[in-house]
Amino acid sequence: MTPTTMFSLANFIVMPMWLLMIFLPKWKLTRYLIDFKVIPLALSAIYIFYIIQSMMDNGLMDFGSLGSVMNLFTEEHAVLAGWIHYLAFDLLVGMWMIDQNKELGIHKALMAPCLFFTFMFGPLGFLLFWTIKTIKNNVG
Q: Where are the transmembrane segments (predicted)?
């Protein structure tokens, strides 16, 4: 499978999960996928494959400076591994937010933007969720 095909497949795998978490967070299938971390585990396995591929192609990775990281992300397998890293960890954060919300009870209309921004911009969605969580905890 080419890296381009895997990029498309990885994106295709995560999109339905985000939609389930936004629109049907309490549905049995959604809960199963969250509880057993099926998609992040699959992405982790894919990540390991491509990170090893990248190291086989270019040796050990250098994260010691911005320039070396920029150079690293000119290699196809490293970029794909990095992208899958984002997909997996953003999804895990979204799943964690859903789990947190079981006790918080934040309305779906407020959770939806948190999840959307976590999917699209990672830390922005997390920050929004944390802000809402803090306000909700302080207000009651």
A: 6-24, 36-56, 78-98, 110-132
Task: Answer whether 121's CB lies under 8 Å from 93's CB.
Answer: no
Q: Comparing C-alpha atoms, which of 102, 107, 101 is closest to residue 130?
A: 101
Tell whether the model's pLDDT for residue 71 goes beyond 90.
no
Q: Quickly state the pLDDT bin for 140 (edges 50, 70, 90).
A: low
Helix or strand or coil: residue 65? coil
What's the DSSP call for residue 37?
T
Closest CA to 95 of 49, 35, 45: 35
**pLDDT of 17-46, one tens digit each?**
999 999 999 999 999 999 999 999 999 999
**Is the distance from CB of 80 to CB of 50 less than 8 angstroms?**
yes
Q: Are 94 and 119 in contact (CB under 8 A)?
A: yes
